[in-house]
Write a structure and sequence with these properties.
Strand content of chain A: under 5%
Distance between the termini of chain B: 80 Å
Radius of gyration of chain A: 24 Å
Strand content of chain B: under 5%
Largest sheet of chain B: 2 strands, antiparallel
Strand order of the largest sheet of chain B: 1-2
Low-confidence stretches of chain B: 1-33, 510-520, 572-597
Shape of chain A: globular
Strand order of the largest sheet of chain A: 1-2
Structural class of chain A: mainly alpha
Number of helices of chain B: 27
Oligomer: heterodimer
Helix content of chain B: 55-70%
Order of helices and strands of chain A: HHEEHHHHHHHHHHHHHHHHH
């Protein structure tokens, strides 16, 4: 029940926001985002941590039985952690908008709460219709948030965001529909349960799996975004209000990687094994390409937006490494990226509220004016760079390690796993770590350090905000900083609970890979024999 | 004689067997009990105290403490860590490596088709004598330099004071992790952690663009090395299935045996690749060719930072890494030769630059690069004892030298140009600084019977012993002469001679701003206070006394040797049955009994003492040249006999003064093309990739406007397109499935 509550409570509060007068909007929104957070804590307590690979806290409401239509929710530890991330970012997004949003508060906070409910729904869904509904529905509030509350180019950004991701999703839908149809054909029963569908979908032959995978991947790759489907993201991020960017980076992008984890890896393992190399190449190209583009940005927000493309490349890479290190790292990456990049957008938003510019040419040396802000900025940049001891490192290192291990060339070595990637993939992805340090530190060097530069017409007295951060702003950054530190210093409990669900996925792939490796070994042997046979014949006379 | 019990790997297997401890170190869990029994848990305080210091600094910053309190908290924390280190060292007795478990860090397992596998990198300590050797001088020097900084940074009380000491504490913590880690991932944490602190402290004066640029450069260049290290660690994990030393070393043992027996074919190529990747990391952190470029720029940081981080401790991390992972380096045919040559060439190369600079702090920086080169050469010619000894002596005398330069810089408003200060000895209050400087210079120059003389000599002698390395020996000898020259060039110009001074750029003149900066009129240098003088005195005496350690445990080539002998870094003669040579790592004493088939120095045994005279001669020649050119007959600060030499006007001198234009070359060859490439990518991203997307968007719109010219509703057009696409796809999928 608690999961349904987590989805419905924010929506109920959203209705309250709309029903009550505008002056109450902020208060109701804060409560409406804090209550789910408290419920999240209850969910953590109730969850069965002994068997985190199974789905708990479930609830199924049958709707149209003959068609297999039902509303079903449940979470394993992967979903639960992502829900917790969403719940944590909820109040932060509300609180960070207090001074930034000045008009049409009811619409804003209402949609913000609705969005939160929908996002939780995506992670909690156990049936396809509910999943897809929530998945698609997240677009509507986001469209509203960008379209009304964004900056100058917001209309174009909102439309592009909506249409691009919508197009992708529809293609994914085609794949999903085919899986449902296939399952019904195989079992004779209509079912939309994700678990059931996954089991039957894995029975599809390679050709069909490849098609389904392509369809699903197109949809999710747009969302992630994977190179070359990323062009909507810099625009949407730059134009969105701060809270929008935080949600976009923190959670909405994770819908894509979560989709890949749950559906692409879950439904079409044969095809994934076959094409892991191609996906990995796209991921690595994205890491390097977006990283280099970050380097030449002058708009701070755009820089962080492109850095998301680069960072999520690591996440996808870890997923297609198809081993424990890679997938554990990737799941952790989803959480870590949400925390650190979300915080970076918050920090940029705070400066924007004071200076009304995001250009690195107009801003510089803010450390001397805003030391608290600068401290947080350096902290989260370091988390984003992947400094060991902070959260980014654990996931980045594991995804690269997973990539490194996953090669059939290592066959027989104690730390290796079968796979098609290997050291070269890891090395190129690793170059991304250098580039990340480059662009982020150059940004810090310009904006945070150096001589003070402010926009020409800036006057501190005109701002409603103090020169440095106020208590509210510090308050929303502290939990994120704490989480980053905790996940960097003591990720062991999280890793331990992710281990089991990831193991289920990994087992499946390792079996297929081992089988494939054995087959290839055989076919090589077979092909060697006829090749040498004529030679022998040639020698005998 | 050859196969003494010194083989680390054998000792690794037996290390926990003696005495109270119990069993062979196999699993961390066993080792925990073992360590608890040995009361080594106390060692956890060594990293805990500096991190406590960091937290207290944060609190100081929050409560806006406007006194020197942060400095004294730091001194207390680091001093406490030093005391705990000493206690741990004394408590080690005759024990081998000890493991102390802290808490789980990155730790997960997975089941394979055949077996259960795991990746374990916990927060645990691996304490052997090599660890303690490093920790003793890291915490000891850390404490002293923190005391020095309490006075040096006094101008910043209330502004950057807490920030400085927070990063200072954090640095010592990270260094502790690096040195004491029981696995390579925790070492990596320390490795990048010291990089972060280095970044924060180089950029301490963050309003200065040059400081910000230097900090950035240091971090990014180090990251290049770090990538090598990270990949090396991954390769180790893939190859051996573990990143924990206690499990790793026994697994390397059979390979070392195979190498010793000459069975090169038994050593996989990938294993030989490991040291190559690791050494990239070491070259980055320890500023060797081609990644040394960040260290001279790092002098933008406050001088105590240069002394602690960029001379004494952090930059020796690369030496530590190789010493720690020495068994892995031994099984590769080319790893150690590469290390030796890179070290040697770096030593020579940066000495040439150091001879031509005018900024005394930069001269010291290039000298650090050069001395690090000696250490790497020492590792490369397999005298890990010599390398560690040089690390040890260098830590003291280079810290002394830097702190002296810092005192000068502080006293003369940032003046660092050796042409603009002269004759400190004859000014009031500068005697202790001058004496300390002299002690440091003598050590660095390798003056006979100083600690620096013996440690440098150990490396040079060993390179003549190892066949094929005599060229390295000669280069190192010549470099030793150059070192003596540039060291005493500074001493003779700045510290003795006629009194003259001009204030540096930080001098703002009198109240009206009319300060005549040209001749320093109205400027009064302020001599160092008690903290600086005390620290300089203690350090100078320590650098002198460091020579005494050479005569303790002489059978193991000094106290440092005895610390190294019990660790992974010490290797018995490995090459002997490989048909190359038999030689003892830095065995002055034992080797003196017979000259072996190995290298000789003009027919004499290099260990026999002849090199003491030769290297002393090279050092003295360097000092005499410096005396002749820069002291004898010099009547003013700016000019000396050296200016009249044809050599100082030629291409060679201009190249050396311009640091051989390496920065410019890197910029032109790597950074600029990459920048252009990135711009092209950004342009392509907007035009080509996004253009294609827009084209796709345009098609339905065009169709929509064809069909329904009255409506320009984009959404409808797209939705139609989407629905159409969906139908088409479904049909395609259906057809495919038939």
């Amino acid at each position: 029940m608690i999961l349904l509550g987590l989805i419905l409570v924010p929506i109920v509060f959203a209705l309250c926001v709309w029903a009550l007068p505008e002056s109450r909007a902020k208060v109701v929104a804060v409560i409406g985002s804090l209550v789910p957070l408290a419920m999240g804590v209850i969910a953590v307590v109730q969850f069965n941590w002994d068997m985190p690979e199974q789905f708990w806290l479930g609830k199924t409401i049958t709707w149209l039985e003959p068609m297999g239509l039902e509303l079903s929710v449940g979470v394993d530890s992967v979903s639960l952690f992502l829900i917790l991330l969403t719940l944590l970012l909820g109040p932060i997004c509300v609180l960070c908008s207090f001074t930034a949003i000045e008009h049409r508060l009811k619409t804003y906070y209402g949609w913000l709460l609705v969005l939160q409910g929908a996002m939780v729904g995506v992670f909690a869904a156990r049936d396809l219709v509910f999943f897809y509904t929530c998945f698609e529905f997240t677009l509507v509030p986001m469209y509203v948030l960008i379209n009304i509350y964004g900056s100058t180019n917001r209309k174009k950004a909102a439309t592009k965001f909506f249409l691009y991701t919508f197009t992708g999703s529809v293609i994914a839908l085609a794949g999903l529909v085919y899986v449902v149809w296939f399952s019904a054909k195989e079992t004779g029963l209509w079912s939309l349960d994700i678990g059931v569908l996954a089991t039957t979908a894995r029975g599809m032959p390679l050709g069909q799996q490849t098609l389904v995978m392509t369809a699903l991947l197109l949809g999710f790759a747009v969302k992630v975004p994977l190179f070359p489907f990323h062009t909507w993201l810099p625009l949407a991020h730059t134009e969105a209000p701060t809270a929008g960017s935080v949600i976009l980076a923190g959670v909405l992008l994770k819908l894509g990687t979560y989709g890949i984890y749950r559906f692409v890896l879950g439904f079409t393992p044969l095809a994934v094994v076959e094409h892991a190399g191609v996906i990995a190449v796209l991921a690595i190209v994205g890491i390097l390409y977006a990283g280099l583009i970050c380097w030449v940005q002058t708009d701070v927000k755009k820089l962080v937006a492109y850095s998301s493309v680069s960072h999520l490349g690591f996440c996808v890479l870890g997923l297609v490494a198809l081993n424990a290190a890679g997938i554990n790292g990737a799941v952790l990456y989803m959480i870590n990226h949400g925390l650190s990049t979300g915080a970076l957008f918050l920090l940029i938003g705070m400066v924007y509220e004071r200076y009304h510019t995001r250009s690195m040419k107009e801003l510089g040396g803010l450390a001397s004016k805003m030391p608290i802000w600068a401290t947080f900025m350096v902290f989260f940049v370091m988390a984003s760079v992947g400094l060991p001891g902070l959260n980014g490192f654990v996931s980045e290192f594991l995804t690269i390690l997973g990539t490194f291990q996953a090669s059939n060339a290592w066959s027989g070595l104690p730390g290796s796993t079968p796979g098609v990637l290997g050291p070269w993939f890891a090395a190129f992805a690793g170059v991304g770590m250098i580039i990340a340090a480059m662009y982020l530190l150059i940004m810090v060097g310009k904006v945070v350090f150096g001589p003070l530069v402010e926009p020409a017409n800036h006057d501190d007295a005109h701002s409603k905000l103090p020169v440095d951060l106020n208590a509210r702003e510090i308050g929303i950054l502290l939990p994120l900083a704490g989480a980053c530190l905790w996940l960097g210093v003591y990720p062991a409990p999280v890793l331990r609970t992710l281990e089991a669900p990831v193991q289920v996925t990994v087992d499946r792939f390792q079996m297929i890979l081992a089988q494939k490796q054995a087959d290839e070994g055989e076919s090589v042997r077979v092909s060697v024999v006829p090749a040498s046979a004529p030679e022998e014949e040639g020698e005998t006379p | 004689m050859l196969l003494q019990t010194t083989d680390i790997i054998n000792s690794m297997a037996t290390l926990a067997q003696n005495d109270h401890a119990g069993n062979v170190v196999e699993h961390a869990t066993q080792a925990v009990d073992h360590a608890a029994a040995g009361n080594m848990k106390l060692a956890l305080l060594i990293p805990a105290l500096p991190i406590l210091g960091t937290i207290l600094m944060l609190l100081c910053a929050i409560f806006r403490i406007k006194s020197k309190l942060p400095a004294f908290i730091t001194v207390a924390c680091l001093g406490g860590a030093f005391v705990v280190t000493v206690v741990t060292w004394l408590g080690m007795g005759e024990h081998g490596a000890q493991l102390v478990f802290g808490f789980d860090w990155i730790n997960f397992s997975w089941a394979d088709a055949s077996s259960e596998q795991s990746f374990v990198a916990n927060f645990g300590l691996y304490i052997d004598r090599l660890t303690l050797l490093w920790m003793l001088f890291v915490t000891g020097l850390g404490t002293l330099i923190a005391l020095y900084a309490s006075e040096y940074m006094a101008d910043d009380v209330g502004t950057g004071y807490c920030r400085f000491f927070a990063a200072f504490n954090l640095f010592v913590f990270a260094m502790t992790c690096l040195v004491m880690a029981d696995n390579l991932i925790l070492l990596y944490l320390g490795w990048e952690g010291v990089g972060l602190c280095s970044y924060l402290l180089i950029g301490y004066f963050y309003k200065k663009p040059s400081a910000v640029a230097a900090a950035k450069k240091a971090f990014i260049v180090n990251r290049i090395g770090d990538l090598g290290l990270a990949l090396g660690i991954m390769l180790i994990f893939v190859q051996f299935g573990t990143v924990e030393y206690a499990e790793l070393f026994p697994k390397v043992e059979p390979l070392v045996e195979a190498f010793r027996a000459g069975h090169m074919d038994q050593i996989p190529f990938t294993v030989q690749l490991i040291p190559v990747l690791l050494m990239i990391g070491a070259f980055g952190k320890s500023a060797q060719l081609p990644l040394y470029v960040w260290l001279p720029d790092a002098m933008e940081g406050p001088t105590p930072v240069s002394a602690l981080i960029h001379a004494a401790t952090m930059v020796t991390a690369g030496v530590f890494l190789i010493a720690r992972m020495f068994p892995v380096f031994l099984v590769s045919e080319w790893a150690l030769p590469v290390v030796a040559w890179v070290g040697t060439l770096t030593a020579l190369f940066s000495a040439t630059i150091g001879m031509a600079q005018f900024d005394i702090k930069r001269i010291m920086a290039y000298s650090t690069v050069s001395q690090l080169g000696y250490m790497f050469a020492g590792l490369g010619v397999m005298t890990s004892t010599g390398a560690a000894f040089h690390v040890f002596t260098h830590a003291f005398f280079k810290a002394t030298l830097f702190l002296c330069c810092g005192a000068v810089m502080h006293g003369f408003a940032g003046q660092l140009d050796l042409r603009k200060i002269s004759g400190l000895w004859n000014m009031r209050g500068w005697r202790i600084v001058t004496i300390a400087m002299l002690v440091g210079s003598l050590n660095l120059a390798g003056f006979p019977f100083t600690a620096g003389f013996f440690s440098k000599d150990m490396i040079i002698a060993e390179s003549f012993v190892t066949p094929g390395y005599s060229a390295i020996g000669w280069i190192l000898l010549i470099t030793a002469g150059m070192t003596a020259y540039y060291t005493f060039r500074v001493f003779f110009r700045v510290f003795v001679g006629p009194v003259h001074f001009e204030p540096g750029e930080e001098y703002e003149g009198d109240a009206e701003g009319h300060g005549d900066e040209g001749d320093g009129h109205g400027f009064h240098p302020h001599a160092p206070g008690w903290a600086v003088n005390t620290v300089l005195g203690v350090l100078a005496i320590s650098s002198l006394l460091a020579v005494g350690t050479y005569f303790i445990n002489t059978d193991q080539h000094g106290w440092v040797g005895s610390m190294v002998h019990d660790s992974s870094a010490y290797m018995s003669p490995l090459y002997e049955s490989h048909g190359v040579v038999e030689h003892d790592a830095s065995g002055h004493v034992e080797a003196s009994s017979d000259v072996r088939a190995g290298g000789t120095f003009f027919g004499l045994n290099p260990h026999g003492g002849v090199l003491y005279y030769v290297s002393a001669a090279f050092g003295l020649i360097g000092i005499v040249i410096a005396w002749w050119l820069h002291y004898a007959g010099r009547t003013e600060a700016a000019t000396s006999r050296a200016d009249n030499l044809a050599l100082t006007k030629g291409m060679l001198a201009r190249g050396a003064r311009g640091k051989w234009f390496i920065d410019e070359i890197y910029d032109a060859v790597i950074r600029k093309p990459l920048w252009v490439f990135a711009n092209v990518l950004y342009w392509l991203d907007q035009l080509l990739i996004d253009g294609l997307v827009n084209l796709f968007g345009w098609v339905p719109r065009a169709m929509g406007s064809l069909i329904r010219p009255t409506q320009n509703g984009q959404l409808h057009g797209y939705a139609a397109g989407m629905a159409g696409g969906l139908v088409v796809l479904m049909v395609v999928v259906w057809l495919m499935s038939l």
